[in-house]
Amino acid sequence: MTSEAGEIVLSTRDLREVTAFAAACAESALDIFEADQADDSRPRDAIGAAWEFARGGARGKSLRDTASAALKAAKSADTVAAREAAWAAMSAAGAAYLHPLAKATQVKHILGAAAYAARAAELAAGDDPGVGAEQLRRAVDRVGPVVVEVLRRYPAPPAGGGRVGELIRLLDADLRALTFVDAEGSAGERGGGTQGVG
Question: pLDDT digits over 33-53, tens only?
């Protein structure tokens, strides 16, 4: 679903599904931020705005404003784990602005929230990569077929980006390898009854 000009076709439903996936992933790390900054609601607000869009709301100023506020919250965090958790929230709100450009860098709009949340969990557990791997497995479990299909329209993510970049590449490879089948064995929902987000 790429146009002749190299642009990727994205429907509003595509964007809502991607944003719901990102919000669910970011939510998993919210307690890490709030344990560090109990009175700062900015990451929670960003995730809330992402969910609002995912559930049918407008793609407007609230998403941009809460994403910006979550970025500021990340800068005020006392721990690196809390910072990564706030970046996950920022990425969730930003997922609604996935660009229809066939560029590898756009994959971060789809998978960034999950990768930042996984990194936050790793750091909160004493920089344990096994914890990050488990978080990626949970992200795979929560993904729906629309998100995977959107991801496959883009090139694989680029090298670099430190540990978060590595987590993005690991998750990207796992998601691209998924096969979804419906009850009749046709392409559709993943076998095993796993439900998609949204």
Answer: 999 999 999 999 999 999 999
